[in-house]
Amino acid sequence: MDDASLRSAILEAAQRHPRSDGEDVLSVPGHVLAALADGSGRHLRLVESMACTAGVWPERYLRNTRLLSCAEQVRLLGARVLLVGLGGLGGHVLDMLLRMGVGTIVGCDGDVFEESNLNRQLLSGVDRVGMPKAEAARLHAQAVNPAVIFEPVCTFLRGVDMHRHAKGADVVVDALGGLDDRMALRDAARAAGVPLVTAGVAGLSGWVATVAPEGTAPADLFGQGRAAEDVLGNFAPTVGLAASLQCVQVMQVLTGRSAPAGMLLFDLSDQTFVSLPLA
User: Fold this and answer.
1) How far is Cα 279 from Cα 277, in angstroms, rounded to an integer?
2) Please, are residues 179 and 219 in contact by the beta-carbon 8 Å criterion?
3) Is 154 in a helix, a strand, or coil?
4) Which tens digits make up the pLDDT trace of 236-276?
5) Phi/psi zone of residue 23: left (φ > 0), alpha (ψ -120 to 50 degrees), beta?
6) Which residues are CB-contacts of 259 (< 8 A; sequence separation ≥ 6)?
7) Which of 33, 211, 256, 260 could cysteine-pair with 217, CB 3.0–4.6 Å?
8) Cβ within 8 Å of residue 147, ≥6 positions away
9) What's the distance, CA 52 to chain centroid?
10) pTM for this predicted structure
């Protein structure tokens, strides 16, 4: 099946879906797109992208239509994200990027789940204690959105490997815990010339920032040593909020919108949100 025939098949299968504002959007159920992918020998991600290019929404993304244009959804489907860390922040970030339809995600973590992860890490479970986090991420990606290409890396990225993976990405997401590897990841993103979306949490507080390749990163200010989370602990609501803020900024970067400048700090104990410049 050539592109023209596939596009015609998508348009033929499209159905009008009414929205609450009275406007209709065209959509196609996922099983139809999956059948077209199988029949044409193309990856489902490419078929979804072709549908969006034709102005037809894959049904799984219908709730995106108030926030994104078809062209922006195509950009997400064509994007490649390097996600470093698949624990607390990384598990939530992965889940949201999958549901948003980010087309290719390289997820890196050399750790395995421990029982102490169960209080906050979305990918963990009682039956996954001892399982490599990258393997759990692969299973989650397959279950949530088979159109996304997920590439698991079951090692801690260091040196040349970190730089190699950063070079192929459109954005690098720092979902690391602690402080030890953050400066190295910032350097890898800077060398690759791609933005870095970074975050950290401790207790009921956290911070999020999008750093341009030439910009100052929070890691430049924090340096090395003991992290605040070691003292204040990690709490599921704090982790989930920080990951959500990261994913909004990833979306803004990938769709060509302007991500907020500076660093956003929040404290859930008194509902405080403050933006600070990064000099």
Assistant:
1) 6
2) yes
3) coil
4) 999 999 999 999 999 999 999 988 889 999 999 999 999 99
5) beta
6) 195, 197, 210, 249, 252, 253
7) 211
8) 43, 44, 45, 48, 58, 77, 101, 103
9) 20
10) 0.95
